[in-house]
Write a structure and sequence with these properties.
Layout: H1 2-10, H2 16-25, H3 27-32, H4 44-54, H5 60-74
Helix pairs in contact: 1-2, 1-5, 2-4
């Protein structure tokens, strides 16, 4: 799921439902998320359940994603979208 969130961030996709659709349709995204053609893409509701349940009182998920994005920017793998 974190890989899917990173894809969403990298491509500016804000909707969890849309992220799931993109990963379902795009072979490169499936590869990045380590999903083969026979593996089901997680449902968008899985993101909501985890965000509102498991991660509600913790900012751990935010910290993980922000660290990964900073690392991608530092390595030149992504543009810094905060500074156009």
């Amino acid at each position: 799921m974190i890989r899917m969130l990173l894809i969403g961030y990298g491509f500016g996709i804000r909707s969890e439902r849309r992220i799931c659709e993109e990963v379902h349709l795009n072979l490169a995204h499936r590869w990045c998320c380590r999903l083969d053609l026979n593996t089901a893409v997680p449902d968008h509701s899985t993101f909501s359940k985890n965000r509102h349940g498991r991660f509600r009182d913790s900012d751990l998920l935010r910290q993980v994603v922000e660290t990964a994005v900073r690392r991608c920017i530092a390595e030149g793998l992504s543009a810094d979208l905060r500074h156009p």
